[in-house]
Amino acid sequence: MELKDEVRSSFKRSHNLARKYYDCGDLPKARVEYLKCARFAEHLSELTPSKRKEFHERAEKFREIAEGLKVGDIKVYTDGIVPEEEMESSKRTAEDSEGREDRTKDLILAEKPSLKFKDIAGLDSVKERIKEAIVYPFRYPDEYRYFGVKGGGGILLYGPPGCGKTMLAAAAAGECDAVFINLKISDIKDKYVGESEKKIKDVFNLARGYERAIIFFDEIDALAGERSGSQEGHERSLVNELLSQMDGLEAKGTEKRYLVLAATNRPWDVDIALRRAGRFDTTVFIQHPDLPARKKIFEIGLTNKPCRVDVAELAAMTDGYASAEIVDICEKAAKIPLRERIKEGKPRREIVLVDFERVIAERKTVLSGWYPKAVRELTGTEEAGMFQELVEAGAGYISGG
Ligand SMILES: Nc1ncnc2c1ncn2[C@@H]1O[C@H](COP(=O)(O)OP(=O)(O)OP(=O)(O)O)[C@@H](O)[C@H]1O
Ligand SMILES: [Mg+2]
User: Fold this and answer.
1) So which residues are the signal peptide here (predicted)?
2) Which sign does the torsion angle of CA 155, 260, 79, 264 carry?
3) DSSP code of 321?
4) pTM over 0.85
């Protein structure tokens, strides 16, 4: 395939994903995909002189859309993500490694979130634990130094999908006014030996360029040093590079501060070496929302929507659902009267209880599959004790609750 075709197909893929995420209310993911679209469109404008202006304008449009999807009021420092497809194609056209450092930086989304813990429903004890490990050492470095207490270390957030792990990590940065460097392990992984390690170094170097930074490794389970058969040597050295970079951060002075967070919804797959003391020594379970949390998520999800249904009632109807699913339920419920007005000319101007009932009846929570699988994976393993909270939370789903 020609480079242009490759970029075009990546562009289409991101565009479809962006719309999909947008439709189900996952605005942060939609935003990332729209940023990718903007970048692809720019790339296409370079590659297609006859349509340069048109693609450039589309890129602008996508950036505008992404801007409108910010969580809270995120200021973007290093904008845009270059997806793997584009990395691959650029590798083929420019095999020399010049400029690769810049490309890695492009790959990293470094921003200063204005998202705060108060924007996240529930999870109060989790917030407090993160505060003690991360926020207070950032805010009161002198106190910590005075008492000779070391803050920080790495924190591993684990739990079901769509319940706020990524959001919490961003809010932790927002709470201490730190730059948030957010990347997926799959973004770093490179089939060329040595390249992934270099990308990890780049990430930590990027962090060191800021006064305060939180590095967030999403889908940390993809870093599988212990389990990966033939690739073992390669993956092992990637794990080692991450560990040594983390150790390096800790040894640094006290004025500048960097912390590392990681998240997974496959905790049983996380490399043991990463969980040993001193690295990701704090593991925090991010549970699905309880009743008060669901009420708050409905309040958030129904902001700017014409709806007078009691959120307590809605919360009671959605026991066991993931937070992201509740946000999605609000979107889908709103679309029912909207569609009726537009397509059938009906005069209804509000979302009513029946709309929610319809959406909820059609939608099973993914957690009813996720929890039993997670408990099965952990049962009888050494990790079961470590992830006890998950096993306990899963009991409700297994006994048909
Ligand atoms: N506790 C919460 N309070 C309010 N909204 C939430 C909460 N948790 C999740 N959401 C909503 O769900 C979306 C997805 O959440 P998030 O990306 O943080 O989930 P996650 O746990 O990282 O999921 P995954 O494991 O799939 O990465 C958020 O953008 C937000 O709209
Ligand atoms: Mg996430």
Assistant:
1) none
2) negative
3) -
4) no
In tens, the pLDDT along 85-100 reads 333 443 433 333 334 3
Q: What phi and psi, each to the nearest 5 degrees, are found at residue 278?
A: 90, -15
Picking from 329, 157, 383, the residue whose alpha carbon sits closest to that of residue 260 is: 157
- Write phi, then psi, for 280 (nearest 5 degrees): -85, 70
Q: How confident is the model at residue 232 (pLDDT cuts 50, 70, 90)?
A: low
Enumerate domains of the chain plus CATH numbers.
3-72+81-88 (no CATH), 111-285 (3.40.50.300), 291-362 (1.10.8.60), 367-398 (no CATH)
On the CB side of 201, CA atoms within 13 Å amount to 10
Pocket test for ligand 1, best of 33, 124, 155, 166 (most atoms within 8 A of CB): 166
> Helix or strand or coil: residue 174?
helix
Q: Tell which one of 163, 266, 288, 330 to mutate to probe ligand 1, the residue whose CB is within 8 A of the most ligand atoms.
A: 163
119: pLDDT strictly greater than 70 = yes
Residues near ligand 2 ion, CB 5 Å cutoff:
165-166
**Nearest residue CA, atom 18 of ligand 1?**
164
